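Appendix B, example 12.
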Amino acid sequence: MAKTSRKPARPPRIDVHTHVAFPEILAMARAIKLRGNGPGKRDWVPAESRQEHARQTRAIDDKLTDPHARLADMKAMGVDMQVVSMNLPTPCYWANARTGAEIARACNAEMARFVAAMPERYVGIGVVPLQDIDASVRELDHLVHGLGLRGVQLPSNVRNRDLGEAPFRPFWAKLEALGIPAIIHPRGFTHDDRLHKFFLWNSIGQPLEEALAMASLIHEGILDAYPRVKIVISHGGGYLPYYPGRSDKSYESRPEPRANIRKKPSAYMRDFFYDSVIFDRAMLPTLVKRVGAGKVMMGSDYPRGEIEKDPVGFVSKAGLSTADQKKILSENAQALFGIGAARPATSGMRRS
């Protein structure tokens, strides 16, 4: 009998930017009652946005908590797998160190439970209590070796301290040693009194937070000190990858930007990874040209609010080559998050 040839299955299309939220953890966060003004304590959703935020949460509540409730949407979006992370500000970076560690441990346990229900569909990302670096290093070991999570989500700053500052260096060293990626995702914007109106805290503030986080990591020398560390910047990197020329000009004209780094800021753009959640298809080829197709991955920001509802089409209709599309839709995420491997690799991925 003649053998029939089968068309090889395509690689899974992987959405690297999706969120979950768990009622038990949110209750723990509310119980500490430490919101308000002051470093790291400002409500992440200003009063002007709370009514609509609550309405959207009610509309998709089951999709934030139930892995089965997301499947129909994933099918409609052409997505085979989701990388899922906590819906900020659940990890409570404003809490004291002990409470922060307890909440982070609970977050990671719930995340592991969520992805274990459908491991062929979901990849879990953990959290750490970054207000306590020693506890964060311990939690990194636990979430990787104890729970099998494939990365860690970070805020863009911790109590208004930028992530590149010296106290965070033991964390970056541990992250590099483990070989898992960090996903940086802002929760609103610090010093945002001018941004409460018109949803500007999100549309303007969050991309600015991402630019500030990248600038800190670059200028403080983190990327030089830990060359194999893997960092994903949400929302396509915010503003910085699309306007690095002014940073380069400052590097050329003044000594301050050159204090800790060996090359101009734009040269570090390829040292980060990015998602495609930029909502302007014409800018995707610009990002790819700037950082390389091997550093961009498909994302949607599912399930609430500002979602890219056709993430596959956003990539496939952007005028990129077939090879670049494959990298962005599947291959980059498979390599970065160890998808198809028993656990994340323990050695870092070299930058291209």
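The domain at 14-35+44-336 is CATH 3.20.20.140 (TIM Barrel). The chain has 14 helices and ten strands.
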